[in-house]
Amino acid sequence: MSDDTPRVAALCGSLRDGSHTRTALEVALSAAADAGATTELLDLREYELPIFDADRDREAAGDAEELAERVREADTVILGSPMYHGSYASPLKTALDYCGFDEFEDTTVGLLAVSGGAFPVTALEHMRSVCRALNAWVIPHEAAIPNASSALEDGEFVDPKLEKRVRTLGRRAVQYATIEPDPDSFESDQNVGAEGK
């Protein structure tokens, strides 16, 4: 493959063995690969990430530096999370807290959220807010998977329309991997915590 092949990484915010989030991200990555990207699933079960402590250097925080490097290398990052208490999951929050502008500024980001009940709209909104504060460019198309236990069966989507939505996210991750981002956001000017990670 050429050096300009888009690199798409998916960051899975679920630690469950039978995670519907992980399954959906794998579908999105499959679509990205079909569209010509190299892909990587960043499974947070494989990283030792202590609770974020601003007084601890990232290099001294388990696998945080390794994870940040993997995120930094991607042209597009797809964030995937189950919805917990109306927001996204704490493993993903911890992973994002160890990242900053170096990892996300001017990077294309796709969003995917899964819930056991109704549409996980607030989880998507919260992830979008974090990305805006990091000056990432978030793909307008997002994937929401409600009623996940009935939406997925044996690792496959039951509803082809839902699968199409997730696969579209994967294709958009490639299509917009090198888009020229919008000007910096107001939120990023206030985001001093993302400096000097």
UniProtKB/TrEMBL annotation:
Source species, domain of life: Archaea
Domain NADPH-dependent FMN reductase-like: 6-148
Cofactor annotation: [4Fe-4S] cluster
Any single Gene Ontology cellular-component annotation: cytosol
GO MF annotations, alphabetized: FMN binding; oxidoreductase activity
Gene3D superfamilies tied to this protein: 3.40.50.360
InterPro entries named among the record's database cross-references: Flavoprotein-like_sf (IPR029039), FMN_Rdtase-like_dom (IPR005025), NAD(P)H-dep_reductase (IPR050712)
PANTHER family registered for this protein in UniProt: CHROMATE REDUCTASE, NAD(P)H-DEPENDENT FMN REDUCTASE LOT6
Family recorded in the similarity comment: Belongs to the SsuE family. Isf subfamily.
Protein name in UniProt: NAD(P)H-dependent oxidoreductase
